[in-house]
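Support case: magnesium ion complex. Customer-provided input:
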Amino acid sequence: MTNTPNPKENCFSGACPTPGERNMNTIKLSEGSGGREMDLLIGHIRERLPKVTTWENITADGATFAFGGKHLVFTSDSYVVTPIFFPGGNIGKIAFCGTVNDLAVMGATPIGISLSLILEEGFSKEEFYQIIDTIATLSRETGIPVVTGDTKVVEKRGLDKIIINTSGIGIAERVCSEKLVPGDVVIVSGGIGEHGTALLAKRFSLEVTIETDSKPLHEELRAVGKYVKQAKDITRGGLSAILNEVATKNSVGMEIQEEEVPLHPQVRALTEILGIDAYSLACEGRFACVVSAENAESVLATLRTFNTTANKIGVVTGGSRVIVKTLYGKKILSTPSGNIVPRIC
Ligand code: MG
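Agent response - structure generated as follows:
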């Protein structure tokens, strides 16, 4: 194979596609699904940007900037969910909570967020203000102000109703980026996959009573923050994606006990009906954290005051694989790939 560049096949990575790599010159849905393809795309973007030396944690949920003995934490996220209204919430709720949660898992107290809106000509004003009012209510309840933003409108069919981008800044006394060692305990803050299940049920007109788990997590993380070595909110790519990301970044393995992973019966039923892996399904109000074994019981007890389904699901091990121990044996939990569930957040 030759590496001679072909200007007609100038794919994002700069390499020419081989016959087995067709369509590399156009963006695929899977490159936004939170799995392996998205990780590769982000890697290619990062390679092309100037190297960052002044900020830390630039591939984490929020980048951190040390100043005056504290850390400024900065994050940004865009929301393209469909449908925009779903059981227990709407696009405005996940736009507010998602950014607050990315700050919270870094150990930060959120101090302000931005709200940028791209709207389709003809979008219902009633629905629009319902979304804005949801954000206003969350801002009032949490005391986290919306301090800047932007509004653009594009021609009809230029996009699907509404896209929201929120960025946020927070201040952390201590960033949750402590080294993980074998024996550390992995805890999830509640049942997984409930946002994905609620959304898919609405998308496919299935009758379920389950609602999105979307909520701001800053209070939960503030309550246990000093014991948390690392935390990640569980969003696109679900528990599979974030456990693999944490394991890879820290050069450790994990062993997860399947029966300890909290799963609402409706999540279990719907994922079986649709043939979706519950471990790859998004949450919008859950996080996984790693704590040392000696702090695990007290962290779990505190998290259960917020959510009774919080649970210890496994431990950090040597090696490099995330293994799930089931009743029938062990299996490898890989980073998901393909079109996991497009436009879920
Ligand atoms: Mg995140």
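The chain is about 30% helix and 25% strand.

Case will auto-close in a few days if no follow-up is received.
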